[in-house]
Amino acid sequence: MAGVLIVDQSPGLARDVAAVCQSVGLSVVGAARDGLDAVDQAMRLRPSHLVLDLLLPRLSGTQLLATLRRQGLSPLIVVVTAITARESILAARQAGAHAYLLKPLATARLIEVLSSRRGDVVAAITG
Amino acid sequence: MQVVPTTGRAELTPFEDAVDRLELAVAAPVVIQRLLATIADPRSSVRDVEAVLTVDPSLVMRVLKLASSAVYARRPVRDLGGAIRTVGLHELRRLAVTAHFATGKSPLARELWAYSLAVAFACERLALIGRPPPGPDLFLCGLLHDIGTLVLDRLLGERYARLAIVPGDGRQADLERAAFGFDHTDLGAMAVARWNLFPELEPVVQLHHDPFAADRLGLPAASQAAIELVALARLGFLTTSEVLTDGEPAEVDLAVALAGRRGVTMDQACDCAEEGRAQAAAVLGALTAA
């Protein structure tokens, strides 16, 4: 399904991401506030894009990405997180992340990332 | 790497804030990280293992106390070489992890480790009956599955104490989530992922209250078995506990379902829990003996 699944515990951030998605013509097909709910929604909705935090209750973002890979799902992945550790950025990249954006969210950069094509260089952006 | 000016909100969620302060609460167990990596490396010698441990003399003292106890050697073990000859490297690893973590004088810490050690020993016994596929060390999975409780206790102090948590209680995660927006499984999983002790530990820590969620994650069979055996050992502990006699119906149903899946009867699960509890008391007695 063409559309974005947003996974973040913060309703405010999820709203901001949804607004950005709509501004670039992407429909939001689902929103989850924890990792297990995100797995269920991703399996059901098979989104084309996944915008997620790594710090999630009930299943971490890293485990969520590993699960999607095991289940054969490969959405375009955009990480939006407060984790600045280099290992985390590398792990997200290995898990197939297209971009790694730091909170607080730079909306202009998210617009750019969501408008870009799959296969573009992974962007790691510091706040 | 591009650097872009930031806009928007800067506030952290309660969970992000807790993770941000995690290492202030519980330092990464560096000696244990090195020990597990050294023992897992087939090129390592006994001397390499001794060299890793001897940087922490107080840990060595506790390991020797445990190795000398009635649970293990039943005679004085005077040095690490003697401990390794007596119990072997596999058991030494467990002793060292126990000696590192199972300390702390607060009432919650004492309860936590009495419970966690009982679950660890019960897991070992359940595995002898249920015969899971080869996988992670079930003793260590059981011992560390509730590490998030320790982290929350250290991080939140009095705020956490007000919840009057009883380790292992099925209501624990709900109470924590209602109070803080996240629970000990979330924070514990984040801690062990950072510590990188062994890869199967994170799902055990995250899912021991929700073991059938592992079905949806497509985890390897050994990893799923570890989650289910730890969950069953927890429920066996509760079922045989004098403190928690009013088991939630949902917890009883979960225990029966898990026992059936692992090829264990509820009577066997309870026997394993009782034996685990006795072994845990002996180990903690040895650790606290003068």
Description of the molecule:
Chain A has 5 helices and 6 strands; from the N terminus they run βαβαβαβαβαβ. Chain A is α/β, with parallel strands linked by helices and 127 residues long. Chain A has a single domain, classed as 3-Layer(aba) Sandwich (Rossmann fold). In chain A, helix 3 links the parallel strand 3 and strand 4. In chain A, helix 1 crosses helix 5 and helix 2 runs parallel beside helix 3. Chain A starts with a strand and ends with a strand. Chain B has 290 residues and is mainly alpha-helical. In chain B, helix 7 packs across helix 15 and helix 15 crosses helix 17. Chain B starts with a strand and ends with a helix. Classes of the chains: A alpha/beta (127), B mainly alpha (290).
| C-alpha-based Rg of chain A, rounded | 13 Å
CATH class of chain A: Alpha Beta
* Rg over CA atoms of chain B: 19 Å
Oligomeric status of the shown chains?
Answer: heterodimer
Largest contact between chains: A-B, 35 and 34 residues
Q: What does the secondary structure layout of this molecule look like, with pairings?
A:
The complex is a heterodimer of chains A (127) and B (290).
Chain A: E1 4-7, H1 11-23, E2 28-32, H2 35-45, E3 49-52, H3 61-70, E4 76-81, H4 86-94, E5 97-102, H5 107-115, E6 123-126
Parallel strand pairs in A: 1-2, 1-3, 3-4, 4-5, 5-6
Chain B: E1 2-3, H1 14-20, H2 22-25, H3 30-40, H4 46-53, H5 57-68, H6 80-101, H7 107-130, H8 138-144, H9 147-156, H10 158-161, H11 172-180, H12 184-195, H13 201-207, H14 214-217, H15 221-239, H16 249-262, H17 266-288
Helix pairs in contact in B: 3-4, 3-6, 5-6, 7-8, 7-15, 7-17, 9-12, 12-13, 13-15, 15-16, 15-17
Quick structural gist:
The complex is a heterodimer of chains A (127) and B (290). With 127 residues, chain A is an alpha/beta fold.
List its traits.
heterodimer; A: 127 residues; alpha/beta; Rossmann fold; six-stranded parallel β-sheet; B: 290 residues; mainly alpha; Hypothetical protein af1432
